[in-house]
Design brief:
Blueprint lengths: L5 E6 L2 E6 L10 H16 L5 E6 L3 E3 L22 H17 L5 E5 L2 E3 L1 H7 L3 E5 L3 E3 L13 H20 L2 E3 H6 L5 E3 L1 H16 L3 H14 L4 H15 L3 H11 L12
Parallel strand pairs: 2-3, 3-5, 4-6, 5-7, 6-8, 7-10
Antiparallel strand pairs: 1-2, 8-9
The protein binds ligand T3D.
C-alpha cells in the first residue's frame, strides 16, 4: 500500500499534518491537495484539536506546485491547448488559502526546510511561522514566468511592505530563515536542534489558550487592514462585548484574582 500523502499525528490537543512527498520536496499534486483538504476538514470538525501544525517530511517544507503534474505541466505539442492553471488555482490553492485563514483553531507552519513558490505562501498564510535555521523561503514564480500565487500578492506586502515584497517576488532569490525573521516575514527562526521542541512547545501553549479569542484576534487583525482607526476601535468594542460573555473570560479573570494558572476550554461563548 502506498504511503499517505499527508501524515497525521495527535499529541494532546495538537494535530500535526505532514506533507509527505519528500522525493519531490513535498510539491503539490492534485492528490496531495485533496489529502490536505480532507485532513484540514477533519481537524476543523474535531473538538479535541485546539492547534494545527503544518510541516513537511524530509528536507523540504514544500516546493509549491509539482511542475511535472499532468494537471499543470505545460503541454509542448504544437496543437496543444494551454493547461488550465487558473482552474487549478481556483480549485485547489484558493480554497486551501481561504481554509487556513478561517480555521477554528490557530495554525502554525513549522518550516523544516525549503519553502518555495506556493509552498512559501502556504506557510505565510498560517497564523505563525516557525522556521528551522537551515530552512529558506523562495518566491520561485518569476523563475518560471509566473506571478506569486497562493495568496503571495496579498500576504507579502502586508507582512514586509511593498519594497521587500517586490524585491522578493521579482528576483525570486532564496531568503534564509534568519533573514526572513529579521525582515518580519516570519515569527521565529530557531536552531535546527531546537526546532521540534520549539514547535511543540508553542503549539501546546496555543492549544491551552482561549481558542475562540485567538481565532477572533486573527480575524480582527485581518479585517483591520481594510478599516479606518475609528472603525477598528468600534470593531474591537463589539468583539469585547461578545467575549466578556465567554467561559474563557470568566475563567481568565477568576484565575488572575486567585493567582492560579487559567484553564481555558476554548468553548463557544
Ligand atoms: O503551475 C501552476 O499550476 C500554477 C501554480 C503555481 C504554484 C507554484 O508553486 S509555481 C512554483 C513551483 N515551484 C518551483 O518553481 C520550485 C521548483 N524547485 C526548485 O526551485 C528547487 O527544487 C528548490 C530550490 C526548491 C530546491 O532545490 P534543491 O537543489 O535543494 O533540490 P532539487 O535537486 O532541485 O530538487 C530535488 C528533487 O525534487 C528533484 O527531483 P530529482 O531530480 O531528485 O528526481 C526535483 O526535480 C524535485 N522537485 C523540486 N521541486 C519540484 C520538484 N519536482 C516537481 N515540482 C517541483 N516544484
Amino acid at each position: 500500500m502506498s504511503e499517505a500523502l499527508v501524515l497525521v499525528a495527535q499529541e494532546g490537543a495538537v494535530r500535526t499534518l505532514t506533507l509527505n512527498r519528500p522525493k519531490a520536496l513535498n510539491s503539490f499534486t492534485t492528490a496531495m491537495h485533496e489529502a490536505l483538504a480532507a485532513e484540514l476538514k477533519a481537524a476543523e470538525a474535531d473538538t479535541a484539536v485546539r492547534c494545527v501544525v503544518l510541516t513537511g517530511a524530509g528536507r523540504a517544507f514544500c516546493a509549491g506546485q509539482d511542475l511535472a503534474d499532468p494537471a499543470v505541466a505545460p503541454n509542448l505539442a504544437p496543437d496543444a491547448r494551454p493547461t488550465d492553471v487558473g482552474g487549478v488555482i481556483e480549485r485547489f490553492y484558493k480554497p486551501l488559502a481561504l481554509r487556513l485563514r478561517a480555521m477554528p483553531v490557530p495554525v502554525i507552519a513549522a518550516v523544516n526546510g525549503v519553502a518555495a513558490g506556493a509552498g512559501a505562501n502556504l506557510a505565510l498564510g498560517c497564523d505563525m511561522v516557525i522556521a528551522a535555521r537551515s530552512a529558506s523561503f523562495i518566491q520561485a514564480f518569476s523563475k518560471i514566468g509566473l506571478v506569486p500565487d497562493a495568496g503571495g500578492t496579498w500576504l507579502l506586502p502586508r507582512l514586509v511592505g511593498r519594497a521587500q515584497a517586490l524585491g522578493l517576488a521579482m528576483l525570486g532569490d532564496k531568503l534564509s530563515a534568519e533573514q526572513a525573521e529579521r525582515i518580519g516575514l516570519i515569527w521565529k527562526c530557531v536552531d535546527d536542534a531546537a526546532f521540534a521542541d520549539e514547535v511543540q512547545t508553542t503549539a501546546s501553549r496555543l492549544a491551552g489558550l482561549p481558542t475562540r479569542a485567538l481565532v477572533a484576534t486573527r480575524a480582527a487583525i485581518d479585517a483591520a487592514q481594510d478599516l479606518g482607526f475609528a472603525e477598528a476601535l468600534s470593531h474591537e468594542g463589539d468583539l469585547q462585548r461578545r467575549f466578556v460573555a465567554s467561559h474563557d473570560y470568566l475563567e481568565g479573570v477568576a484565575a488572575f484574582m486567585a493567582k492560579r494558572p487559567p484553564r481555558f476550554d476554548g468553548a463557544p461563548e
